[in-house]
Structure formats: structure tokens, C-alpha cells
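Regression test case RT-17, inverse folding.

Input:
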């Protein structure tokens, strides 16, 4: 990966984000399935169009102070495939008991909506467009109001790849390439959201140093 940022693109990133007061760094985990190791071929229990969010992680960054001012995490109970696959539990470390005790998506969406009332001038971002697409699918399936209505969205992975002229990569490798230590477990919504917030903070610090 190119270690030095494109300063013009970094400034563009900072200018766009700084029009807001807060940034919500969001990461989801969802039901999923995949063949493990030498497992015999079989039909996947959870198809790509059947994935449901099972964890929402959210870190709120104050764009004036560049501090993470709030963390939000909720498990979500899946409906289509309520039993997590071995692959899913291995990937995310989310336990069956965690989702069994959780609320369904529409109820968690109301909690997120209540949280947003505290941050009227905000945008949200995720690592890649998957999270935005998954939330849209969850909203459609649950027949509920959009979870982040009318809020500007930013694909942070795309911005990162433009700034560093690099191909698409995972969140953890991208974080560590900046010299940041990874905090927590990879592929956990709350931990990924926290690390994404740390990345955004560092990029904004770099941009403001050269502005």
C-alpha cells in the first residue's frame, strides 16, 4: 500500500466530513454461512439474500474535538434463520444466547433513532457499502422506518483507497497499515466500529496538519 496519502484527496475527505458536527461510524455483523475446512459440499443454510443483522456497533466521533463521545451496541434477533451457523459463531464470536435474548430489528431501529436525536448535525459511514445495503435489506424485511433516515452517508473504504491509491482491503489491515494497534476482536460490530472511528480520527488529524 502507498504509505503517503494523496494530500488533495485527504483534504477533500476532511472538507466533506467537517461540514458536520458528528460522525457515526457503523459496523454490522449478520447471519451467514460458509463451508468450513474440509467440510463436504452442501447447500448453504443462509444465502446471501437471507442475511440478517445480528449486531449493530456504532461509535460517535465529535468532529470538532476528534474524540469518540459515545459507543452504542445492540444484538439483534434474526427471524429468517434464528439459529446461528457454526461458521457465523466462529467468525463473529456472537453466541446463540446473545441473539436469543435480543430484540428484533424493528425494535433496535427505534433505539438507534432515539440515539440520533442527540446528534442532529451528523453523517454516518462504514467500511465498504455492505453495511448500508444490509441495513436497507433489514428495513425492507422488517417493514419499518429507515434506521438512519435522511443522514448523509460516506463509504470510508472507498475514501481510504483513493487517499492511499490502494486496492480494496479489509478493515483491520487498513487500520494497522496506518500504524494503529487493533483494539478488540475483528468481525465484532462494536470493536470494528471503534477501530473505524480511530481510523477516521487519525485521517482527520493528518488532514488538519497539512491544511
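Golden output:
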Amino acid at each position: 500500500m502507498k504509505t503517503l496519502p494523496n494530500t488533495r484527496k485527504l483534504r477533500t475527505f476532511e472538507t466533506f466530513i467537517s461540514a458536520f458536527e458528528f460522525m457515526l461510524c457503523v459496523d454490522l455483523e449478520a447471519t451467514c454461512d460458509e463451508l468450513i475446512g474440509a467440510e463436504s459440499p452442501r447447500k448453504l443454510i443462509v444465502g446471501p439474500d437471507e442475511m440478517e443483522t445480528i449486531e449493530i456497533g456504532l461509535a460517535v466521533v465529535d468532529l470538532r474535538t476528534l474524540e469518540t463521545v459515545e459507543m452504542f451496541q445492540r444484538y439483534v434477533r434474526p427471524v429468517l434463520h434464528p439459529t446461528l451457523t457454526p461458521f457465523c459463531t466462529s467468525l463473529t464470536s456472537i453466541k446463540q444466547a446473545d441473539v436469543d435474548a435480543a430484540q428484533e430489528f424493528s425494535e433496535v431501529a427505534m433505539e438507534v433513532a432515539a440515539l440520533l436525536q442527540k446528534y442532529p448535525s451528523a453523517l454516518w459511514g462504514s467500511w465498504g457499502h455492505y453495511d448500508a445495503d444490509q441495513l436497507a435489506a433489514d428495513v425492507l424485511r422488517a417493514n419499518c422506518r429507515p434506521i438512519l433516515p435522511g443522514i448523509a452517508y460516506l463509504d470510508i473504504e472507498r475514501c481510504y483507497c483513493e487517499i492511499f491509491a490502494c486496492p480494496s482491503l479489509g478493515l483491520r489491515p487498513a487500520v494497522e497499515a496506518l500504524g494503529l494497534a487493533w483494539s478488540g476482536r475483528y468481525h465484532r460490530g462494536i470493536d470494528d466500529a471503534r477501530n473505524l472511528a480511530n481510523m477516521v480520527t487519525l485521517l482527520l488529524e493528518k488532514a488538519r496538519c497539512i491544511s
